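Milestone M4 deliverable, item 7.
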Amino acid sequence: MMAIRSTQVRKFCLALIMSLVAIPFSRYISPTAFYDGHSVYLAWLPLGVMIALIMLFGRHAIVPLAIGFTVTNYWQLHLSPFYSLTLLFCQLAAVCISCLILYSVLGRRWRHGNPIKNIWLHVFWLGFAAPVMGKVLMYLTGKIIAIPELMYSYFNITSVIYTIVDIQGLVCASLIFTKLFYYPLRMCLNPRYAKTFWRRNFVCYTGFKNRVFIICWFTSLIGMLVFLCAPFGDYYFAGYLVPAIFIFFSFGISQLAYPMVILAWTVSAFLLVMYNTNFLHGVQTQYSLAFILSSLISFTVCLLYLLQVYNRSQRLKTMWQEQAMLDPITGLPNLRALEEYMARPDPVSVCCLHIRNLEFLSRHYGMMMRIQCKRSITQVLQPILCKEEKLFHLPGNELLLVLNGPDTEARLTHLIDYLSSKEIRWNNSVLNLEYGISWGRVSARDNNLHHMLGQLSWLAEQAGEGNQILKLDNGHVEAFDLNSERIVLLNRVKNALDWGGFMLYAQPIRKSSGEGYYEILSRLVDSQGMVMPDKFIPVLAQFNLSKRFDMQVLEYLFSSLDELGGKRFSVNLMPYTLMQKGSAAEIIALFRRYHIDVNRIIIEITEEQAFSNSDVSVANIQQLRRFGCRIAIDDFGTGYANYERLKRLEADIIKIDGCFVRDVLNDPMDAMIIRSICELAKVRNLEVVAEYVETQAQLELLEQLGVHYMQGYLIAKPQPLWQLENKKKGL
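Output delivered:
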């Protein structure tokens, strides 16, 4: 209680001292002009002092202000107590009412906070309402009581233009010149504020680019003020040059802090109206004066508006930049923040924390569990990280840690143990999370940060229970590069599909009589060379490009059949093609579009497709058979075939896999298998094709065993399809 009372007494004394000093001083320096036989204030500065002290001390400034104005009025006007109190009431009442309204609207902290925030309420109530209410109160008082001649110009209307100029002088004092006293008085009260003011509003703008601008701007401002206020007595240096000042200040808004712009404008406006004899030379009429004061007031409002707009845009820009550095869902720093963080010169350890079973758990508990899990892990790890170490969000099941200092692996071991000892909960259920982590050293000089993050992510997935911590070394990089080759090949495959990069080859399948057909094979050919099917076919299957590939092969073949005479061809369909609804209908549509005789095309399917339990595959195969397509089963005997399935086999041709043909001369078991297949095929009236026939001895033995067609290098090597076209043309 004693401390509060002591603080209040201290505020009272400081406010009283400042009132007794500042009010007479401000009245003395208030710029005036003499028109129509009366002296009029262009800016009655004690009003600005009054508002400034209330902004500094609040209600504690009311009594000191009353004392200060009483002393000043008595010293200047020598009034009786009654008239002194009347004048004091008119001077204080309007300002106190305006401050009370602001208090009721904005709350207890109406005097504090960002000077830009709620600026329009301050401008209206303190800049316009208070002076106008004060003048209206004086005029009403002059109507009620008899006013001495000494005070007649204050309390009565002498002329309309005089009254306008008088009110404008009060508005100028409250709106423009309050800050002229507020900042110096506050610095006198708190020297630390002066240092902070200098550091925040000037030093931070002293970079080379800003420094050049500030020096040039202030130098130009000083030169312009000297030019306008010097006693040249020239008609060209008149009030109509005010717009030049306005334009000049508009340039400074984007480069200077709010207090610096306001102070510079306040000082400039004070000098202009103080030296009005020079500045207003040639326009010394009441109407011109009113116009100039209106211009100063209007520009001040515009300046405050521009400052508010620019300040708001800067705050929004800062907020958006901060938001751009955060993941909007988890609230953790993202990859943009990581890039900015990695700009520092010191090398750091980048660690990828992979939660192995988070994907599985999120399917059971929902996606919000994944988000909450990452947040919980962050909350657990954050206290054990050093000051400059951070956690970053990565898509999927991973978090990124950036660690400083040596012994990274030992710290990661402790981190994993500590994390495993903590319970991560979701809806009162304890989640049994499994962790794997990978790490590597990175410096600002490295330009492959994102590539390294991909390597770390892949390596973290490989970390198992036996070794939860893996370091990215040369061996792991090579393994990652092998995986990356698959991605490179995928891009080549996609480009080939987009731009027709697949070349068709044809390999003959012949009987001993010479009768037969051709199997269509494909090669990927681009600027990087040729890729064989054993390389790109798995990529097509893995990334669900099978149907698109098969349809391109069929369409290219069908478009070329007119140039190939009556030759017959077989085309392989990949397993995933027939597993998609509508595949058979699209193939049939191609037959009809190109008017292809169905007997010229044999559809080859794998043994897996022939005996598949997939309803879609079976339906597609049956639809093709009903259309009239002959079906050949490729690689027969390697997987699904058994006697029960052979009984219900619906096909026209069986192709014996090459694994039985290669050693048929040396392995009696292979010969017995081929013979049994041929006998079963004979019963079902099926034709048999043997692949990989490379020697004459193999051919003769296979014919003895019952094989009808031979395919292999002995018969012929695959050749480009266009060569068959040229042979047909006789080229």
